[in-house]
Write a structure and sequence with these properties.
This protein has one domain (about 5-64). Helices cover about 90% and strands about 0% of the residues. It has two helices and no strands.
Length: about 60
């Protein structure tokens, strides 16, 4: 299913994509901290929300 050419392409693509993400983040790090000083609160709220949903699903399995 996966030929050698496909594996090489995927490896190259992942390396290029991740390196561009790191480069872009490093380039805009200072600007983002100015415009979005407390964006970590949004991330924390999302994590807590999904954790809450996960707990509800696990508790429902024991109740039913």
């Amino acid at each position: 299913m996966f030929t050698t050419g496909r594996i090489i392409f995927v490896a190259f693509f992942l390396i290029a994509f991740i390196s561009m993400l790191v480069w872009s983040y490093g380039k805009e790090k200072k600007l983002n901290s100015i415009h979005f000083p407390k964006s970590y609160k949004v991330l924390l709220a999302l994590i807590l929300f999904f954790l809450f949903l996960f707990v509800i699903v696990k508790i429902r399995k024991f109740l039913v």
